[in-house]
Amino acid sequence: MASQSQGIHQLLQAEKRAKDKLEEAKRRKVKRLRQAKEEAMVETDQYRMQRDEEFRQKQAKIMGSQSNVLEEIEVQTLGKIKELNASYSASVESVINELLSIVCDVKPEIHVNYRITN
């Protein structure tokens, strides 16, 4: 009977060691999964930051070129306005004098389409 109880005791100890090994394996597995998840998060964050930086660079390049175009258009527009103002200033007096001479210096003439009927 002592050998039986010793055999049962050995079986219980073996079962306990197996259970401890399984628990340890589960803990290692959970630890590895947690570590893999953290590494994946770090990797995705790095990838996201890289793509965001590339996007910002492309956006800055596009917006920068658009602002250059806008600045060029603004400069051209201001140049045209100055040119038109200079042309106006140069010819305003002569145009007004010509209009006044046409209006004030009336020369009475018979129109070419007028027919005298008797």
Automatic annotation (TrEMBL):
Molecular function as annotated in GO: ATP hydrolysis activity; proton-transporting ATPase activity, rotational mechanism
GO cellular component, as recorded: synaptic vesicle membrane; vacuolar proton-transporting V-type ATPase, V1 domain
Pfam (any one): V-ATPase_G
Keywords, sorted A to Z: Coiled coil, Hydrogen ion transport, Ion transport, Transport
GO biological process: synaptic vesicle lumen acidification
UniProt keyword Coiled coil present: yes
Coiled coil: 8-53
Quaternary structure and partners: V-ATPase is a heteromultimeric enzyme made up of two complexes: the ATP-hydrolytic V1 complex and the proton translocation V0 complex. The V1 complex consists of three catalytic AB heterodimers that form a heterohexamer, three peripheral stalks each consisting of EG heterodimers, one central rotor including subunits D and F, and the regulatory subunits C and H. The proton translocation complex V0 consists of the proton transport subunit a, a ring of proteolipid subunits c9c'', rotary subunit d, subunits e and f, and the accessory subunits ATP6AP1/Ac45 and ATP6AP2/PRR.
Family: Belongs to the V-ATPase G subunit family.
Record function comment: Subunit of the V1 complex of vacuolar(H+)-ATPase (V-ATPase), a multisubunit enzyme composed of a peripheral complex (V1) that hydrolyzes ATP and a membrane integral complex (V0) that translocates protons. V-ATPase is responsible for acidifying and maintaining the pH of intracellular compartments and in some cell types, is targeted to the plasma membrane, where it is responsible for acidifying the extracellular environment.
Name of this protein: V-type proton ATPase subunit G
